[in-house]
């Protein structure tokens, strides 16, 4: 299926696997790329050296295009951009809007720039700065999220910008892809659906918790890092919700120290990142400190399998997923269903 997205990034199918921290590593990304979709490495939880090694590992497994997701507010964002350029990565995606300077640096090197946004005004801004495409995530999406549903936000952005728009938040199958195309999108991005595949390195016990979840078992909380964060509702998350301000402060300090040890970052670098986050997101200092919780608590579940001590970012779509296909099977299934739906609708050019 050819769309503006497939033409832009050189993949066969208009599907994107989002850059999830601790989840979107070389094995998942290369499997997605080989299946004909766009896989994106989640680099926020990697050191710069780890990022370079991960890029090379993906390239050793596939010759297909892939991307890297970056934190635009990271103190070492420029260094990471240089790594992408040096390693010849096709696509740079961003969880937050990158600066005009970062966009220009990447575009001058021939890298396709695809920021993720959650509001029309943010899409307009990055489009004006030269972004090649934009991923628009509605409230149904996992991780940090907004309040506007994908079905409302997506057409707003499509009407506002003249670049390809990729829809995210609530997608898992071919019906969703066709719906997004009808709204004017050039493809869909999926996080939770690719997390729940046989190629994902997430521990089996954690996948089982996702598969057992209903749509009512997915909640939004601000207790992890001070920002609205969609995740599975678990006894551990319920405990976070009950904790007071003092308990949250102590927990934040402990997790900040743990993240420093895991990431190899010095305290000075973490302070610089905190300053950038506070400026870019207009956070309070308490929220900046709480932000250290996110990578540590996600790692506990997604890497160590400790569902009792970690959190599991999740889109609402987790409540209607019940299997673990390979990425190849998933992509093939989504595209086959999309063709069937288009044919049933009598769309011009659809498969007979």
Automatic annotation (TrEMBL):
It comes from the Bacteria. PANTHER family: 2-NITROPROPANE DIOXYGENASE, 2-NITROPROPANE DIOXYGENASE-LIKE PROTEIN. It comes from Streptomyces hiroshimensis. GO terms for molecular function: dioxygenase activity. Pfam families: NMO. Keywords: Dioxygenase, Flavoprotein, FMN, Oxidoreductase. The keyword Flavoprotein applies. InterPro entries: Aldolase_TIM, NMO. This is 2-nitropropane dioxygenase.
